[in-house]
UniProtKB/TrEMBL annotation:
<dbReference type="InterPro" id="IPR002734">
    <property type="entry name" value="RibDG_C"/>
</dbReference>
<comment type="function">
    <text>Converts 2,5-diamino-6-(ribosylamino)-4(3h)-pyrimidinone 5'-phosphate into 5-amino-6-(ribosylamino)-2,4(1h,3h)-pyrimidinedione 5'-phosphate.</text>
</comment>
<dbReference type="GO" id="GO:0009231">
    <property type="term" value="P:riboflavin biosynthetic process"/>
</dbReference>
<feature type="domain" description="CMP/dCMP-type deaminase">
    <location>
        <begin position="2"/>
        <end position="126"/>
    </location>
</feature>
<dbReference type="Pfam" id="PF00383">
    <property type="entry name" value="dCMP_cyt_deam_1"/>
</dbReference>
<dbReference type="GO" id="GO:0008703">
    <property type="term" value="F:5-amino-6-(5-phosphoribosylamino)uracil reductase activity"/>
</dbReference>
<feature type="binding site">
    <location>
        <position position="87"/>
    </location>
    <ligand>
        <name>Zn(2+)</name>
    </ligand>
</feature>
<dbReference type="GO" id="GO:0008270">
    <property type="term" value="F:zinc ion binding"/>
</dbReference>
<dbReference type="InterPro" id="IPR016192">
    <property type="entry name" value="APOBEC/CMP_deaminase_Zn-bd"/>
</dbReference>
<keyword id="KW-0560">Oxidoreductase</keyword>
<dbReference type="InterPro" id="IPR050765">
    <property type="entry name" value="Riboflavin_Biosynth_HTPR"/>
</dbReference>
<feature type="binding site">
    <location>
        <position position="211"/>
    </location>
    <ligand>
        <name>substrate</name>
    </ligand>
</feature>
<dbReference type="InterPro" id="IPR016193">
    <property type="entry name" value="Cytidine_deaminase-like"/>
</dbReference>
<keyword id="KW-0378">Hydrolase</keyword>
<feature type="binding site">
    <location>
        <position position="177"/>
    </location>
    <ligand>
        <name>NADP(+)</name>
    </ligand>
</feature>
<keyword id="KW-0862">Zinc</keyword>
<feature type="binding site">
    <location>
        <position position="157"/>
    </location>
    <ligand>
        <name>NADP(+)</name>
    </ligand>
</feature>
Amino acid sequence: MNIHEIYIKRAIQLAKNGLGNTYPNPIVGCVIVANNKIIGEGFTSPAGLNHAEVNAIENVKDKSLLKIATLYVTLEPCSHFGKTPPCADLIIKNNIPTVVIGTMDTNTEVCGKGVQRLTSAGVNVILGTLEEQCITSNMRFFSVQEKRRPYIILKWAQTSDFYISPEETKGEPMPFWITNTISRQLVHKWRTEEHAILVGTQTVVSDNPQLSARDWKGNNPIRLVLDASLRTPKNLHLWDDSTPTIFFISDKEPLPSEKFVQTSFVAIDFTLNIAEQIIAELYRLKIQSVIIEGGKKTLQSFIDSQLWDEARIFTSTQNLGSGTKAPVMRNFKLTSQYQIANDTVNLYHFCE
């Protein structure tokens, strides 16, 4: 690993600090080095606030060192005015002589224009250092830019005999826990990292989930509920209007008469491909990523439509013997496996 790769790797680590906080902007990390020492670091602030380069430059105590420094950044610096001024202009203004960029920004407002502005000002630009790793760190952003859809993560827990829930019973909705408490806390961490979370009606009716990140510090995702006939009882958590919530309902279903502040409704045609329609609506709503947590019908519809990028599957040591079988995976490769106490976590990625 050469010196440029070492500092870009550090920038990738920094970028992850922005997960779940920067939408609709990408997560970016930046490191500034002078005399073989890091003199400034930064990552992207929430939308409307500083980009990574700005935070890193502001972090430099002795600004005179910028004239001999190298700036390392995971994504091409922006060149346009949005809610903040162009980062390329700030780099030029501070006379930073060398900029090492992990990967180009495919957003049409930026794509190559940041590099062009830097090189026109005499900045030495080095492109493509740890490019694949930089792209992977920003997979949500690149999915929206290149696939015109959010990054899609499937998640479920299954018993060792491949059931995701027991037989349906009468009574109040109550979750049936397959995994241990540490695994459930990890899921809440994951929720803080994604823009939205999606479940089907049966999951809501059976479990009465909050779909929040209450066991981890961070933002709650936008709640998405697939409920054609709005049969979710009004006394359940997802009607509490406590956080942005979208119900996908049938285009033949009348809208509720109640007034809501954070709850809205999107009509789709349930006789057509549901997964494709949801993804199109999420792209329209500028949602960058969604974690789909059930139930089986909802998960299977995305699998069968080949509309997913990553699957995170917990397998416990429990046996149920009967109930709802786990979804059937297709077009996948196992990329990682690890243990959380008695739970096994398998991570898969879609492959054609």
